[in-house]
């Protein structure tokens, strides 16, 4: 019993240590602290984050405790999922999974240890956010007395059940067939939107996974008792950036009364998290490689033929083919190779859907498909997200950069990404030109260059596909889909060609420098210049 508990403890401990030592974890911690500062604006800041008809609660422990539970849970569900994503797949990639598979550790113990470590990590992030809100309460100075229960009750009843479901889903999406890659990432993004809409737009709904309505509705009711215009208005409390010109009126909110109905709903979500964990353990393949098993027969056949040929030609001297070396690296050949890698591995259905989207964007009237045009620019997300990350993922960095100049490799990847973007949007581009929609054409072409650039920039910077996927999906949803100004990089509703063209050039320049630094070419070039300078001044090499 002790050995079982000890092995389980070390599984959870090692998972937790590995995740807390990663750069994405530090980024999420920084974002949590920033949320604590930005979401508790000063009375004269000129904006509000949670809007109730122009009034807000006094910054006491109850109000800020409810705010941190709503905001951090809502946002942590999105960024926390991509932070915890692929931990099981990483064990397989790093050859740790095969070691675990050979031990007596059961599937349930392994999966539940992943869920528990993810849950503990989310608790750490949530706790840091709560501390940040406590600090902001003292900094704003509207109420200096900190009531621990005002922060702890929403943390316990609202945040923890929701975060446990998130931890279970992050593992489920990593073991369920068909959900391990970019398809699962996109599906989770829309799942996050679905639960967000339900939590805000459907009062007293069982599907309020985030628990927002329990706090939000109570805040609005208290505001309506003190301000009559809130009762007659349609403002039910919403999140966002709301500019305010005058000083905001305040009221005192003492927190939620945690009745049995609210607690029962939250405990049901705890049960759902346990069910998802058990289902993940059932689906877990224990790091079996089906392709490898299916090819074992071919490998054995090849080995037997090779032995026969070796026995026949045993007395003959082997002849090696000559090595042919090109004097210059061909950029066109590199682009062709990168295109083949990007387009490889997709099923026939992917190509059929892509052809259908190109044909539809060309043949259908522009006024009928204009609202659906952004969907074209989310379909190749799996190709964009792999830009700048393949070498690190497959451990081929030293091999590739030792045989190819880094700038040739960089521009080959970037040009391939631009060509793929042109390929999937060629129908829309031709349609714009035929209809004389030159403003749409220029905006769309700016997006054609901007998307691969930000994909390559985030890939080179992070070495992971997840950062681009989460940032791009959120940017795409807020900008081209919801027509938020300055975020519409495709210009479907508003045109900011100059801004996004300038941003593309800036990102491209910064990424080139970062690529040279990471490969050591910029540092070695600087060192070579310094050595030559010393030699020209009479120094000794």
Explain what you see.
The chain is mainly alpha-helical and 541 residues long. Helix 3 (61-84) packs antiparallel against helix 9 (212-226). The protein has helices at residues 2-20, 23-38, 61-84, 87-93, 96-101, 107-140, 148-175, 182-201, 212-226, 228-232, 260-283, 290-294, 296-312, 331-343, 348-363, 366-369, 381-385, 390-393, 397-403, 406-424, 426-434, 438-462, 465-481, 497-519, 521-536, and strands at residues 47-51, 55-57, 238-243, 249-251. The protein is globular and about 85 Å long.
Helices and strands in order:
Layout: H1 2-20, H2 23-38, E1 47-51, E2 55-57, H3 61-84, H4 87-93, H5 96-101, H6 107-140, H7 148-175, H8 182-201, H9 212-226, H10 228-232, E3 238-243, E4 249-251, H11 260-283, H12 290-294, H13 296-312, H14 331-343, H15 348-363, H16 366-369, H17 381-385, H18 390-393, H19 397-403, H20 406-424, H21 426-434, H22 438-462, H23 465-481, H24 497-519, H25 521-536
Parallel strand pairs: 2-4
Antiparallel strand pairs: 1-3
Helix pairs in contact: 1-6, 2-3, 2-6, 3-6, 3-7, 3-8, 3-9, 6-7, 6-11, 7-11, 8-23, 14-20, 15-21, 20-22, 22-23, 22-24
Shape: globular
> What integer value in Å does the Rg equal?
28 Å
In DSSP terms, counting alpha (H) and pi (I) runs of 4 or more, how many helices? 25
Instruction: Briefly note the structural class of the backbone.
Output: mainly alpha
- N- to C-terminal separation? 66 Å
Unreliable residue runs: 290-302, 525-536
* Strand percent estimate: under 5%
What composes the largest sheet? 2 strands, antiparallel
Helix content: 55-70%
Order of helices and strands: HHEEHHHHHHHHEEHHHHHHHHHHHHHHH
What's the count of strands? 4
Q: Calculate the mean pLDDT score and round it.
A: 80
**Order of neighbouring strands in the sheet with most strands:** 1-3
């Amino acid at each position: 019993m002790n050995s079982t508990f000890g092995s389980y403890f070390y599984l959870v401990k090692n998972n937790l240590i590995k995740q807390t030592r990663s750069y994405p974890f530090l980024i999420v911690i920084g974002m949590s602290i920033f949320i604590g500062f930005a979401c508790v604006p000063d009375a004269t800041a000129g904006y509000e984050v949670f809007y109730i008809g122009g009034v807000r609660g006094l910054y006491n422990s109850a109000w800020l405790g409810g705010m941190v539970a709503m905001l951090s849970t809502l946002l942590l569900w999105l960024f926390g999922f991509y932070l915890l994503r692929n931990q099981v797949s990483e064990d397989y990639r790093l050859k740790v999974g095969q070691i675990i598979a050979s031990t007596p550790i059961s599937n349930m113990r392994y999966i539940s240890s992943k869920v528990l470590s993810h849950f503990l990590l989310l608790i750490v992030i949530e706790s840091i956010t709560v501390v940040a809100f406590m600090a902001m309460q003292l900094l704003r100075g509207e109420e200096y007395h900190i009531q621990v229960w005002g922060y702890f009750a929403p943390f316990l009843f609202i945040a923890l059940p929701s975060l446990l479901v998130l931890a279970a889903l992050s593992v489920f999406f990593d073991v369920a067939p068909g959900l391990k890659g970019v398809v699962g990432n996109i599906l989770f993004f829309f799942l996050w939107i679905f639960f967000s809409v339900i939590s805000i737009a459907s009062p007293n709904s069982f599907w309020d996974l985030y628990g927002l309505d329990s706090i939000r509705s109570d805040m609005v009711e208290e505001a309506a008792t003190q301000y009559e215009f809130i009762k007659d208005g349609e403002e039910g409390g919403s999140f966002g950036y709301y500019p305010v010109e005058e000083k905001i009126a305040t009221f005192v909110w003492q927190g939620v009364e945690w009745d049995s109905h609210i607690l029962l709903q939250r405990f049901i979500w705890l049960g759902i998290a346990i069910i998802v964990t058990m289902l993940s353990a059932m689906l877990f393949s224990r790091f079996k490689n089906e392709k490898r098993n299916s090819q074992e027969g071919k490998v054995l056949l090849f080995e037997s033929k090779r032995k026969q040929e070796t026995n026949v030609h045993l007395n003959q001297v082997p002849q090696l083919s000559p090595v042919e070396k090109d004097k210059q690296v061909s950029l066109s050949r590199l682009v062709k190779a990168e295109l083949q890698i990007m387009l490889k591995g997709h099923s026939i259905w992917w190509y059929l859907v892509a052809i259908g989207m190109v044909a539809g964007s060309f043949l259908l009237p522009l006024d009928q498909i204009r609202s659906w045009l952004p969907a074209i620019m989310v379909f190749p997300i799996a190709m964009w997200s792999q830009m700048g990350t393949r070498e690190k993922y497959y451990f081929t960095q030293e091999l590739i950069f030792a045989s190819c100049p880094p700038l040739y490799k960089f521009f080959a990847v970037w040009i391939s990404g631009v060509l793929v973007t042109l390929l999937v949007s060629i129908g829309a581009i031709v349609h714009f030109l035929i209809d004389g929609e030159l403003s749409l054409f220029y905006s769309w072409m700016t997006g054609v260059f901007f998307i691969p650039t930000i994909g390559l920039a985030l890939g080179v910077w992070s070495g992971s596909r997840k950062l681009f996927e989460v940032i791009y999906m959120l940017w795409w949803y807020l900008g081209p889909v919801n027509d938020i100004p300055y975020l519409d990089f495709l210009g479907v509703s508003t045109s900011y060609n100059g801004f996004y063209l300038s941003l593309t050039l800036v990102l491209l320049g910064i990424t080139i420098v970062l690529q040279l630094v990471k490969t050591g070419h910029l540092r070695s070039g600087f060192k070579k210049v310094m050595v030559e300078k010393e030699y020209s001044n009479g120094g000794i090499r």
